[in-house]
Amino acid sequence: PVYLPSKEYREYHTVDKPSLKEHLVMGLHLLEELDETDLAIGEYIIYNLDDRGFITIPLESIAKRFNVDTERVGKVLIAIQEELDPPGIAARNAMECMLIQLRRMGVKDDLPYLLVERYLPMIGSDTAFLARLLNRPEEEVKSACTLLHKLTAFPAKAWQESDPPSVLPDLIIDKLDDRFEVYLNEAMIPKIRYFKEYETLIYKNELSEEEQKLLETMKQEAFEFLRNLDRRRSLLIEVGNFLVERVHQFLCGEADLTPVMIEEAAHTLGVPVSTILYALRGKYVQTPRGIFPLSKFFT
Amino acid sequence: GFLEILAKSQVELLDVIEQLVETNLFLEIA
What is the ipTM of this complex? Predict the structure, then answer.
């Protein structure tokens, strides 16, 4: 509470690109031919695309929802399919998705279209056989198949991998007036403590040797866990303090980030390099410049 | 061990804590 008056309040965002759906909605609003209702229909379509990037809701039910005719929904859908990226988005299935991609690539040759429409499951197989089936030279079939292999069957997949992760920072570096404060964000971690009620049991003679041994082991394990949890906390704080010192200008917004050598951190903190690597793994730090993976600061 | 706990994200750590609290008589959520 002491710090409240001088603390700057701001929202923190992950330093990453928007999600696929956000990206599509932004694109949708740039399409000039759509009016307000069309935009609402378009957003509805986009937000209801499945994980693969396909539209699975019948156009009729969308039309009903917006009280318009089905053609109008179809018009919006075509605008999305033809103009928004990634190509193939909002198709009904993998076949339609690939056909859309071919059209948008401006492919004139009918062979790739034919292969997708009739022989999609066989594209990866024997081109000589396909050539005989289609009565076309094998070379042509081969190059059409090569082209088809460059297409994606599930347009949302490529995006999914780079979707901004839902990030919970482990470490927070806050700017308070002229100095930085480092603390842990253990929002999810409950306070855990040693429960000594059972300890007396160990030393009573009511238990068998085996039971006593088990309790001893548990006691040991509990101590060790609590100690390791404490060491984890203090090492993360030390890493945070180290960063405040070493990338001060970056944190102040006065310079680009120059990553620090892990060896230097290890040396300064007096722990092995491998320990630092463990400490960085999968953790994020919230700074006045955004939320970053902790590993971004090191090289 | 220590390194194992150090390497865990909060979500992973929460799993470990939940398991331990259930199986270890000497640990409890405060």
Answer: 0.96
